[in-house]
Specification:
Radius of gyration: 20 Å
CATH class of the largest domain: Alpha Beta
Number of helices: 11
Order of helices and strands: EEEHEEEEHEHEHHEHEHEHEHEHEEEEEH
Number of strands: 19
CATH superfamily of the largest domain: Class I glutamine amidotransferase (GATase) domain
Strand content: 25-35%
Largest sheet: 10 strands, mixed
Distance between the termini: 55 Å
């Protein structure tokens, strides 16, 4: 393996070895606490613009396959950081190409990756001082040169990353993943839903099918008028990358749909809903990235272990009584869900589709069916 350097914008340097593609990459460095599911994490479009650090020390031991990707176009991260890469996977699901090896998979897709990094120290740095821009290089080892490059980057908050991951044309989706969960009414009377693709994960589409929806995915900037004129029973605003304030077209379209169609927002979609209703969002110090976040349903007292991937939250107080806070993160007390006081609108900050992660919140897709039917 070739030498590689990771340099953070604050000047911190980590030396390691390359196990992906060669070259340089810049992104916002974040950490993910999931123990498994690295392929789903790598291919999650919400990570566009970010370099992901895995806190679990050994990565690659079960290889990669053709079924677990969350994006049809492969990995979406800007770079990948691990403590130890295992080049000898053992799993019957590993695909035969490259013997199912993660490193070869990353090389195929041009993703730069570094191993041998003290990920515990790196995670501690990010927790103490916050997520920051970083650069991984397998060619330039001049720290001053790398610092100049990373500090010259405007940061991902200055970019509209949604347009880089959204589909260019509408398409239908019919594949599910949990047919045994499908309610009888889902088969007899499927509901039609338009999914705004801000970087939608494929597991969200599968979960909608399992909950009894006929799914049509539309580009992120699709005019609201097209959706309102279409034969849709509801609208889903998907997850996606970056600062929600940069997706001004999504905010404007959502404003036009409020009160006219039942709406479910997930992650970035939740944030866009908050902005469309005149609220504010704020950036978390180091974000929520992992599959072990406890969230309390404030209406039932039930605690769900959830999968999360976001850097921003909605300030519920800024919505001035328009919505009711429904869920709270038990790690840091941040807002995790809301329902509108009058309109058929609900949203959550976390990922109910569990790709990867626990299945505790999958029921929310069925709850969306109930909302469309006039219930809460």
């Amino acid at each position: 393996m070739n030498k590689a350097l990771l340099v953070l914008a604050d000047g911190t340097v980590f030396e390691g070895s390359s196990f992906g593609s060669e070259g340089e990459t810049i992104g916002e460095v974040v950490f993910n606490t999931a123990m498994t599911g690295y392929q789903e994490i790598l291919t999650d479009p919400s990570y566009k613009g970010q370099i992901v650090t895995m806190t679990f020390p050994q990565i690659g031991n079960y290889g990669v396959n053709d079924e677990d990707s969350e994006s049809a176009s492969g990995p979406q991260v800007e770079g990948f950081i691990v403590k130890e890469y295992l080049d000898f996977p053992s799993n019957w699901r590993s695909r035969t190409a490259f013997a199912g090896k993660l490193g070869a998979y990353l090389k195929e897709h041009g993703i730069i990756a570094i191993e041998g990094v003290d990920t515990r120290a790196l995670t501690g740095q990010l927790r103490s001082y916050g997520s920051q821009m970083g650069i991984i290089s397998t060619r330039d080892f001049d720290v001053r040169s790398l610092l100049y490059k990373v500090r010259s980057h405007p940061g991902i908050s200055a970019l509209d990353l949604v347009t880089e991951v959204s589909t260019n044309r509408p398409f239908s989706w019919s594949e599910g993943c949990r047919p045994w969960r499908r309610p009888p009414e889902a088969v007899d009377k499927p509901l039609s839903v338009a999914v705004y693709d801000f970087g939608v994960k494929l597991s969200i589409l599968r979960s909608l099918v399992d909950a009894g929806f006929k799914v049509t995915v539309v580009p992120a900037a699709t005019p609201a008028e097209e959706i309102l004129e279409g034969n849709f029973d509801g609208v889903l605003l998907s997850n996606g990358p970056g600062d929600p304030e940069k997706a001004v077209y999504a905010i404007a379209n959502t404003k036009k749909m409020l009160g006219k169609k039942p709406i479910l927002g997930i992650c970035l979609g939740h944030q866009i809903l908050g902005l469309a209703m005149g609220g504010r969002t704020y950036k978390l110090k180091f974000g929520h990235h992992g599959g072990n976040h406890p969230v309390m349903d404030l209406e039932t007292g039930r605690v769900e272990i959830t999968a999360q991937n976001h850097n921003y939250c909605v300030d519920i107080a800024s919505l001035k009584g328009q919505v009711r806070l429904t869920r709270k993160n038990l790690y840091d007390g941040t807002e995790e869900g809301m329902v509108h006081a009058e309109l058929p609108v609900m949203s959550v900050q976390y990922h109910p589709e569990a790709g990867p992660g626990p299945n505790d919140a999958v029921y929310l897709f069925e709850k969306f069916r109930t909302l469309i039917g006039g219930g809460q």
